[in-house]
Each structure stands twice: as structure tokens, then as C-alpha cells.
Structure of tRNA-2-methylthio-N(6)-dimethylallyladenosine synthase:
Amino acid sequence: MKKDLKYYIETWGCQMNEEDSEKLSGGLKPLGYKRTTSKEDADIIIFNTCCVRENAEQKVEGNLGALKKLKKERPEVVIAITGCMMQQEGMAENIISKFPFVDIILGTHNAYKFTEYLAKALGGERPIVEIWDKEADIIEGAVIDRASTIKGFVTIMYGCNNFCTYCIVPHVRGRERSRKPEEIVKEIQDMVAAGYKEVTLLGQNVNSYGKGLEPQIDFAKLLRKINEIDGLERVRFMTSHPKDLSDDVIKAVAECDKLCESIHLPVQSGSSRILKKMNRHYDREQYLESIRKIKKAIPDVALTTDIIVGFPGETDEDFEDTLSLVKEVEYDSAFTFLYSKRKGTPADLMLDQVSESAKKERFNKLVEAVNEICAKKNKEYDGKVVEVLVEGESKSDETKLTGRTRTGKLVNFTGEKSSIGNLVNVKITKAQSFSLIGEQVQ
Ligand code: 5AD
Ligand code: SF4
């Protein structure tokens, strides 16, 4: 009997990469490949890489090194590396010289061609290295094998035009290209027909969606179109650049019933001086003004953010500005990062790099402040009844179900298994630091 064909895929980095991996899976499924969580019994091993911070790259290299033995024992296994890390100049050559057993290397723009490269590799043509430098046209119609059957990502635009001085993304993902609204709406309608209840719209800067499209459209208008899709229950989006967050978008979130009361607005730093060096095009006051507008227009909104600690030239005072901003905004949660030098970015060449010890000390202080606020915000849910989209059984406690509120809070609760995939009301009985506990109510 023919053995089942299996593939293993590991994804580092952001939601864009997760969606790219779902497209890679979508290409392999019709060929009869099934996903496995064990490298040992895989016929294809794919690493979808990230390069936004150095430690992401180190992890990939560590994992590749560990494949040497496997490839020696089973040379027929196809090893493929894709994603942002490969899109950097000289990286493919570097990988091939360090790990000559890799079979396929491709970039972010041509991952949709993966099955073509696979056919060639299986035909004996190895290694295949194909990184496209130019910004690829948007390819519609790729099959996406989504991780969940209840909620899913929908990319609305690719690339970024902003060139924040620390960031490698515009160098590897190219300039902004927006998908046509009708393609986006159709994709979401198809998802709804397949039973999906929630979508998260993805882009490096969704607020500048629509540039260059005819007829003219902007992000607020797209949100309103999506809000009209019958059967869809919830819409989220990320990431928003504060400089482009328009009043129209805030108004759309306030007025449209499907748009969740949850906004991710990366601040990066609370110091106007550092924000200028980061090339963010807003200062502390302008950011706080946007936050005030959001809070006024959308009561009970959950705010989340990204913060970088230890950007070149950051002094104790600058860092105190970040801490005070965090306390003023009261984020529901925050992704906190140690600044990481990236080759080819302006910040890499700045002479006033912050010492690792100062970075770590500030980082720990920031995490402590963020966690304290997060726990306080969760406490506000104690005793409340909230709407939860039930995603499945809880991983930590089999007797419970798990899902999220419209504000993105994770809730583990006792309830009917039959409600998986539906919206239910849950009474919060205990607020923990990072999640809520509750019981389903009628
Ligand atoms: N070092 C640390 N964090 C970074 N980010 C982007 N580039 C870097 C870097 N060089 C963070 C930003 C961004 C998030 C996705 O990653 O906070 O919003
Ligand atoms: Fe990077 Fe800035 Fe673009 Fe975000 S907006 S991807 S941080 S350059």
C-alpha cells in the first residue's frame, strides 16, 4: 500500500507569515499531502522564516542545523525554506553554504509557486533557489488551508511604504499593494459560506489601504463594505499605523456592528524625540490625541500596541516617557520587543546604540508595568456577561471551552460543546492576569 504523503511546516513571525503558510498548505493539500507535527515522518519540511528581529533568524538557523542528521538518514526528504529571512540580500547563498542539504529556497513573493518548485525538486533538480527581487503582482485565487474553521486571516494589502528606521519589513516585503475590494469581499463571502464567523484583515499598515486602486476606496469604506456581508459576525484588523488612522476609520468601528471594539495601534515609543529618530511621523501628543478620540467614540474599546525598548539613543528619560504613556493609555495588552539591529536599516548605522544590560533592565520594567495594567483591565470584566465566539475545547482544561470576547480577551468557560463555532453569552466568574474564567449563560 502506498504510504501517506506528509508535510511539516513551521512558521516564525507575524500573522502575514501565518497566512502565507496557510497558502503553502493550500497548495500541498490537493496533491494529497497531509500535515504532520513530526519532522521525522514528513516527506517535505518547510520553514517559513521571519527576519524582523535577530533572534527569529537564530532560531531558524538552529532548527536547520538540527535537520542535518535527518537528511543524511532520509535524503529523499525535501527541505524548503521560505519567507522574509530569505528575501534579504545574500541570505540564500549564506544558507546554502552553511546548510548544503537544503533543497528549495524561495522568497516572499513567489511562495504561491511552491508546488512547481516541489515538482522540480522531486524530479532531481536540487537545490532550487528562486528569490524574486521585484514586487510581485498580487496573485488572486490561491487555495488557503486555514488553521481554524471558525476564524481566519484575510490579507488586504501587501508591503509597506513607511521605512521606520529600525524595520526590515519594507526591504523584504516591498512597496504597498492593495487587493481589489471585490476580491476581498468575495473571499470573505466564501469563508462565511464555509461556516467562518470572524475575519482579521491583515496588512502592514491597513490604514493606507486602497492607494492606487480605481475606483477610489479607502480603509474606512472597505470596512463598511465588509460589515454588510451577511452571516459574518466579527471583523478585526491589524496593523494600524497611528499616522494614518483617520477619523473615518474610528467612526466606522464605532458605528458598524461587526467591527470589534478592539484596536491595535503600535506606538513603538512614548518619547517624541525617539519617535522622530524612528521616522514614525507622529509625536507623543498626536498619538495620545488619537487614543482620546478612540476612547471617546468607542466605549469599552480594548487597545493593544507594540513597543520597542532600547532604540539607539534612548535615554532613561525617553524610557520613562514610554512607561508614562503606557500607564496613561492603559493598554489591554502590549507586544514588547528589545530593539534588534537589522542590516540595511538606518538605525543599524546609528552610533548611539544602547547597551544590552540597559535594554534588558528597561524591558523588564516595561513588562512589569504592562502586566499590571493588563491584570487591572481584566478585573473590570469580573461579574460581567460577555459575548464569546467559541473556538473549541480549552487546551489547558479539557472540561472547559475556549473563545474570545469582541475585545479579544481569552475566556475559558464551562458550557455546551455544541456551541463550538457559535456566539454565546458567558458570565465571567474570575478574572486572571492573562485570561478570564466563566460559565455559559442563556
Ligand atoms: N527590533 C525590535 N523590534 C522590531 N519591530 C520591528 N523591527 C524591529 C527591530 N528591528 C517590532 C515593531 C513592530 C513589530 C511587528 O515588531 O514593534 O511593530
Ligand atoms: Fe516596519 Fe514601520 Fe512598515 Fe510597520 S510601518 S512594517 S514597523 S516600516
Residues 385-441 form a domain with the OB fold (Dihydrolipoamide Acetyltransferase, E2P) fold (CATH 2.40.50.140). The mean pLDDT is 95. The chain has three domains: 6-130, 151-378, 385-441.
